[in-house]
Every structure is written in structure tokens, then in C-alpha cells.
UniProtKB/TrEMBL annotation:
<feature type="domain" description="N-acetyltransferase">
    <location>
        <begin position="6"/>
        <end position="149"/>
    </location>
</feature>
<dbReference type="InterPro" id="IPR000182">
    <property type="entry name" value="GNAT_dom"/>
</dbReference>
<dbReference type="InterPro" id="IPR016181">
    <property type="entry name" value="Acyl_CoA_acyltransferase"/>
</dbReference>
<dbReference type="Pfam" id="PF13673">
    <property type="entry name" value="Acetyltransf_10"/>
</dbReference>
<dbReference type="GO" id="GO:0016747">
    <property type="term" value="F:acyltransferase activity, transferring groups other than amino-acyl groups"/>
</dbReference>
<protein>
    <submittedName>
        <fullName>ElaA protein</fullName>
    </submittedName>
</protein>
């Protein structure tokens, strides 16, 4: 895996296209959820991408400093490619690299995520704990989770 982290203005048009394609493939098509994925927040995020040796995007997150999405830093749009990125531990590596990036860019701060509720054990294994009741986000059960610094 080849990992890169870039600010929005550093992304090439091809990288941005691949990111939006993967997010749409999973969050809109696979999860059958019609919603506006480009939400105006991408410009304020860092974008972590994981590609294979052929340049195919297999994993992605966007990372926000404290005060943008929540009072704390946050990680969102966590996604792995359904075709080539799942079942290989890439999601765990993606999240660990995202947590490391928060610490590198923003210091020793708390991290809040809005997680799909069925992934609570996965995020708990990475040091997050549930801090909200289940709520619906785009008709999918979610929970807010926090990782203390």
C-alpha cells in the first residue's frame, strides 16, 4: 500500500475524482443511500489515501482539525474499496494511520467520529468509546464515538 495525506488544494483532479468515485460507490450505491456526499467540508479536511502499486484507490478518510466538524478533531468518510480493499486489514491500517495523522498535524487531542453502529466493536478496538445513543444519519444507524488523547 502507498499512503499519502494531502490538503484539498494539493489533490490532483485525478485523485479527487478517485476519492469521489469511491465514496459514491460505497456510501451512495452500495449502501443504497441517496445523499449529497460533497458537503462543502472537503476543502477544510486533510485527505488520507491508500493506493495499490497500480495507483488504484483502496482506502480513504478525511481528517478535520478541532473546531471544524466537532470541538474535537474528527475522522470521517472512512471507506475501503469493495472490490480490492476489504478483508485484508486495510481498514484497520487506514484508521490507525488516520489517528496517527491527527496526532502529527493537530497534536495530542481527542478524536470524535460518527460511526455506523454495526462497526462499534471495530472502532472500540482502536480506542474509541460510544458517547451517544444510536441516531439515524441518512437512514443508517450511527453512534458518536470518542477517542481520548
Amino acid at each position: 500500500m502507498n499512503w499519502k495525506i494531502k490538503a484539498f488544494d494539493e489533490l490532483t483532479v485525478h485523485e479527487l475524482y478517485d476519492i469521489l468515485y469511491l465514496r459514491s460507490e460505497v456510501f451512495v450505491v452500495e449502501q443504497n443511500c441517496a445523499y449529497q456526499d460533497p458537503d462543502g467540508a472537503d476543502q477544510r479536511a486533510l485527505h488520507l489515501t491508500g493506493t495499490d502499486d497500480d495507483g488504484n484507490l483502496l482506502a480513504y478518510t478525511r481528517i478535520f482539525p478541532p473546531g471544524v466538524q466537532y470541538d474535537e478533531a474528527s475522522i470521517g468518510r472512512v471507506v475501503t474499496s469493495p472490490g480490492k480493499g476489504r478483508g485484508k486489514g486495510i481498514g484497520r491500517e487506514l484508521m490507525q494511520r488516520s489517528i496517527d495523522a491527527v496526532q502529527e498535524y493537530f497534536g495530542d487531542v481527542d478524536i470524535v467520529i460518527s460511526a455506523q453502529a454495526h462497526l462499534d466493536r471495530f472502532y472500540t478496538s482502536l480506542g474509541f468509546r460510544q458517547i451517544s445513543d444510536i441516531y439515524l444519519e441518512d437512514d443508517i444507524p450511527h453512534i458518536k464515538m470518542k477517542r481520548d488523547h
